[in-house]
Design a protein that fits this description.
Elements (H helix, E strand, L loop, with lengths): L6 E2 L3 E2 L5 E2 L12 H9 L6 H7 L4 H13 L3 E2 L32 E3 L13 E3 L10 H7 L7 H13 L4 H4 L8 H15 L12 H26 L6 H6 L4 H17 L3 H14 L3 H13 L3 H14 L4 H13 L3 H13 L5 H18 L2
Antiparallel strand pairs: 1-2, 3-4, 5-6
Helix pairs in contact: 1-3, 5-8, 7-8, 8-10, 10-11, 11-12, 12-13, 12-14, 13-14, 14-15, 14-16, 15-16
């Protein structure tokens, strides 16, 4: 399936704006990382169609996940106040608030399992990242001094986690090597709530917008890698050394290259990032990788390379207006204004319920035609 369906069985029109049920607990419902990612995109402001397209997943996979989330009682249709009763629906208690650590040496952060009050007899999970950022780079110092809407603790956490991408997956989750499945789940769901880019929608993030997206994706992959290994082995989670020593699939290797490329890009070295993006797309030419590579090429003032990547991304997602807009931007940077005009005209004919994107396409087309005018 390549096009978003007009309706989904059991849900109805994909033009509806769904909400997450306040009573739903993803931990108790055993929601998988990919399912949680889709759930986190549903905020009541976007139509279901927009959500399906924004996930970056194959449409049929995204539709299947939405249908499952609905069956779990996670999603509310317009006008609903409670999800239909189901055998797997789960209630969610009030979240536990965690105070930020004081300034100074790295301080453990204790996560209490959802639905439990802190108690000496209750198990807890300690999430530990070194927020002191020893030996900071010039780029990290510049990021800490940025004017944006993040506080110092939030900035340090993103920078500390970014340092760990591509290394020990346990450390990225803030856990010691060999942590059990419950600890992994608690740490992952708490962190994913706190660092998901959508949590900061509408805020000024500066360079942290790209950093946060990279860290969130890497955290999701780290959790999926550790828990997939655990299920496949039917036993305890592997040690840090074992997790690092597991043979990589080509897809996992490409994901690691992509993570490193994103890190290097937000660090300001677009040309070095392009080398890593090129390696990632050679191994696994996903549309998401190609889009980011094209954007990086544009930032590096390499329009021919940007056109190459954007064309491939467009071939994989021909019905995505945002990909078409990226291709038009690449054509325009390469001086191919007529090609840019043609792509934008076709993109505007594609159905989209994203008013902002539609306005951007109109503005881009007007600008290209202004440049083409004698």
């Amino acid at each position: 399936m390549s096009a978003v369906p007009a309706e989904i069985a059991g849900i109805g029109s994909t033009g509806q704006r769904l909400r997450v049920s306040p009573e739903f607990d993803p931990l108790k419902a055993s929601v998988a990382p990919e399912e949680y990612f889709v759930l986190s995109r549903i905020d009541g402001t976007q139509t279901l169609r927009e959500v399906l397209l924004a996930t970056g997943l194959p449409v049929d996979r995204a539709v299947a996940i939405v249908a499952r989330l609905r069956s779990l009682g996670a999603l509310l249709l317009p006008g609903e106040t409670t999800a239909p009763a189901g055998p797997m629906a789960a209630r969610r208690p009030a979240p536990v608030r965690i105070a930020p650590p004081p300034a100074g040496p790295a301080v453990p952060r204790t996560l209490t399992p959802m639905g439990q009050a802190p108690s000496g007899s209750r198990p807890t999970v300690v999430v530990r990242h070194d927020l002191t950022l020893p030996n900071p780079t010039a780029d990290e110092l510049a990021a800490l001094a940025e004017t944006n809407d993040l506080d110092d603790h939030e900035r340090r956490r993103i920078l500390a986690m970014a340092r760990l991408i591509g290394h020990d997956p346990y450390a990225l989750l803030g856990l010691p090597g060999g942590a059990d499945a419950r600890a992994l789940k608690l740490a992952y769901f708490q962190l994913s709530k706190e660092i998901h880019p959508d949590r900061y929608y509408g805020k000024r993030l500066g360079s942290f917008a790209a950093r946060m997206s990279t860290v969130f994706e890497a955290t999701s992959r780290a959790y999926a890698r550790l828990t997939t290994h655990d299920k496949a082995r039917g036993g305890a989670a592997p040690s840090a050394a074992q997790a690092s020593d597991q043979p990589q699939t080509p897809q996992a290797y490409a994901a690691e290259l992509f993570d490193r490329a994103c890190q290097v890009e937000v660090g300001g070295d677009a040309m070095e990032a392009m080398k890593l993006f090129a390696a990632a797309v050679r191994v696994d030419p996903q549309a998401r990788y190609l889009r980011r590579a094209a954007s990086c090429a544009l930032a590096a003032n390499q329009p021919k390379t940007a056109v190459e990547y954007a064309k491939k991304a467009h071939a994989l997602a021909p019905n995505d207006p945002s990909v078409a807009r990226l291709l038009a931007a690449a054509f325009r940077a390469a001086g191919k204004l007529e090609d840019a005009e043609e792509v934008l005209v076709i993109a505007m004919a594609l159905k989209t319920e994203n008013d902002v994107l539609a306005a951007e396409l109109r503005n881009d087309l007007a600008e290209v035609r202004r440049l083409l005018a004698p």
